[in-house]
Input
Amino acid sequence: MKLVLDTNVLVAGLRSKTGASNALLIAGFRGRYQWCCSIPLFYEYEDVLNRAEFLLDTGLTRQDVAMFVEDIAAIVVPVEIDFQWRPQLHDPGDEMVLEAAINCNGAIVTHNLRDFGTAPARFGLELLSPADALQRIKT
Output
């Protein structure tokens, strides 16, 4: 199964070791699904995870984040953006997630399902919460 993880899934997964987001990250590192990511989305991951407020909230250091981001880079399936469909959504950050999913034909995993509205369905894509995605890869 191909999944494109919204940045909020990474943030939630690193903030809490007990939630579905953390379990989904672990499953990704264990190769239970294909974690697809475009270059712009990867840079967003790196930017958000290095923000001072995130580091303070989690107790992570920039070195911890750098190692985590390197680990992501080692396992993700790179997505080339052949087609840009902007604008489809209100948030430009969400556009990166949608474009990566369109170009790899993968499901979008996010905590902000409402932010994506019906756009994924127009492209034949699934929109999943982390718990739903985790359930899918377990079966």
User: Anything to note?
Assistant: The chain has a mean pLDDT of 93. DSSP finds nine helices and five strands in the chain. Residues 2-138 form a domain with the Rossmann fold fold (CATH 3.40.50.1010). The first helix runs from residue 7 to 15.
